[in-house]
Specification:
Helix content: 10-25%
Order of helices and strands: HEEEEEEE
Structural class: alpha+beta
Shape: elongated
Number of strands: 7
Largest sheet: 5 strands, antiparallel
Radius of gyration: 27 Å
């Protein structure tokens, strides 16, 4: 009596195709959100021409007190630009070279101090 032998290769290939479809299903039908520009932390994000402000925020102890600017400005353009940061009646000018990013605050960033016209937001306790 001859015994029929079924090949496992077609079954294995089918299982691999089903598994691959199941694992890529979400990315095939949904937009990849990490490709969109968004504010990844507490600061604000803004774009004006070739200049992008990333995660800008002002850290101060109270109203009418000096506050340190935190975040970054990036220039994607071919020419350097001067950016003026205005808060109330106080302002600071920052030179932004072409194709460069200027960091504010922290141990490596430039120091920009502005007077806060309003009381800073309190973190929830």
């Amino acid at each position: 009596m001859a015994r029929s032998r079924t090949s496992t290769r077609p079954v294995l290939a089918g299982a691999v195709v089903v598994l691959a479809a199941a694992l890529t299903g979400c990315s095939a039908t949904n937009e990849i959100t990490s490709m969109d520009a968004y504010s990844a932390s507490d600061g604000v994000r803004a774009t004006l021409g070739t200049v992008t402000a990333e995660n800008l925020l002002l850290v101060a102890a109270g109203a009418d007190e000096p506050g340190a600017l935190q975040g970054a400005l990036s220039n994607r353009g071919d020419d350097g630009v001067t950016v003026t940061v205005v808060l109330g009646e106080d302002s600071a000018r920052v030179w932004l070279p072409a194709g460069d990013t200027v960091l504010f605050g922290g141990s490596d960033g430039d120091e920009v101090v502005l007077t806060t016209p309003v009381a800073p937001a309190r973190s929830p306790t």
